[in-house]
Structure to design on (309 residues):
């Protein structure tokens, strides 16, 4: 198990053509594997160019997956990491994305990569119950995020670049939810080896519907984006460690802007400002992976932001 920091060497713009549709794509090659992502708008373009920068420990984590293992991607958006996992490791992916435009783009990305045999997409919100309700949108556009199922977690209005959404005037789409525990029990999804939860607000509900699965010692790793502004999400950290899961301080310190100190992490959490991806594991080799990765890591956004350290 090992990993080194990757940099995007080249991005080619191509036109993907099939008997059914034609679309512009951005194409990259990583270790001889060709990956394509549909270039639907400016944000989709940005997601490709920041693939190795935005979440610096996500890709090396994914690259530990083995062929045939099961990866559940909850909050898949347009499938940046679902596609990367399937193409780079040969794992089986179950991707969940409830927003209509993102779900369409997710399926396009599966198609242009020829990965229907390996990636299954579900237009379904994951929560702590089965329910028919509404998805409150961040905005209506491909590759955007910050959508909430069945509740409005926003405490203020949001800007998406130069686009504005009022917290009290969010668009809604009809939506259904289920839980990871239910889908595993019913055999819709095999017991996962690896899980990612990134749903921009109701992680605590997704976690509540996955506790039985996460208690299974056969589950190897779980990545959860924890936003400290909501104490219910922050409580996930203690709940996971109480179940015997471990976390790596080196992984948390590996930040796109700067290498954080343990004090930096404590202050951010105590002030309930922002959050982190927590990668939970049982095998101590993940601690070794993240420790070694940090030693050779250069924060990719430090120079552009004028940050030192």
């Amino acid at each position: 198990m090992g990993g080194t920091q990757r940099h995007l060497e080249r991005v080619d713009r191509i036109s993907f053509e099939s008997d059914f549709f034609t679309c512009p794509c951005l194409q990259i090659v990583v270790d001889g594997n060709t990956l394509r992502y549909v270039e639907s708008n400016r944000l989709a373009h940005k997601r490709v160019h920041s693939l190795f920068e935005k979440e610096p420990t996500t890709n090396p984590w994914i690259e530990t997956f083995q062929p045939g293992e099961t990866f559940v991607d909850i909050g898949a958006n347009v499938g940046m990491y679902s596609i990367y996992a399937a193409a780079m490791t040969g794992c089986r992916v179950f991707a969940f994305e409830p927003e209509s435009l993102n779900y369409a783009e997710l399926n396009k990305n599966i198609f242009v990569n020829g990965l229907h045999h390996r990636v299954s997409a579900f237009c379904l919100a994951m929560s702590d119950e089965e329910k028919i309700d509404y998805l409150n949108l961040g905005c209506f556009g491909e590759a955007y995020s910050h959508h909430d199922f069945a509740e409005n977690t926003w405490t203020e209005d949001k800007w998406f670049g130069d686009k504005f959404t009022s917290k009290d005037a969010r668009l809604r789409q009809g939506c259904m939810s289920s839980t990871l525990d239910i889908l595993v029990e019913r055999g819709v999804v095999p017991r996962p080896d690896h899980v990612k939860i990134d749903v921009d607000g109701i992680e605590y509900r997704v976690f509540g519907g996955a506790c039985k699965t996460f208690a299974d010692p056969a589950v190897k790793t779980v990545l959860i984006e924890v936003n400290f502004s909501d104490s219910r999400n922050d409580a996930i950290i203690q709940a996971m460690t109480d179940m015997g899961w471990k976390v790596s301080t080196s992984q948390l310190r590996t930040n796109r802007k700067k290498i954080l100190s343990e004090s930096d992490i404590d202050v951010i959490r105590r002030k309930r400002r922002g959050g982190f991806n927590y990668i939970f594991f049982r095998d101590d080799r993940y601690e070794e992976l993240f420790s070694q990765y940090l030693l050779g890591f250069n924060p990719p956004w430090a120079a552009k932001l004028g940050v030192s350290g």
User: Anything to note?
Assistant: Residues 100-112 form the longest helix (13 residues).
